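Figure 2 data, in text form.
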Amino acid sequence: MINTGRPLSDSPFLQDRCLSILADPALSGRRRGVSADASALPLRLRRALDDLGATFLKVGQALSMRPDLLPEPYLRQLRDLREHARPFSAQEAKRELDRALRRPLDEVFRTFESEPFAAASIAQVHRATCATDRT
């Protein structure tokens, strides 16, 4: 890679490619009522990364700390991926725990709160009480 001394966000090729990806109705926020104007592109990028799953969330989180690559409106939107993670459903959490523990959740925990205590891009925390007296 050749270092031109300018941010990648100044690259016409990169800008055109990103705009064409964001203009794709399959990836855009149009289904959620987001307008197609340029000011909505940072929001559309954040939503697309959020919809694409954990790997893309991590890419967005990393990019949110790179002012040398992206302009401020994009950085603001991508920071939201770090600060306000969308939790996944309690049913999904319970299924994953059943699979990981190799037995039903109610055999392991006396109580399990469906509402997460905290959420991040690849995990979340639920309060629970062990079924045994052990801690």
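Caption note: The chain has two domains: 8-83, 90-130.
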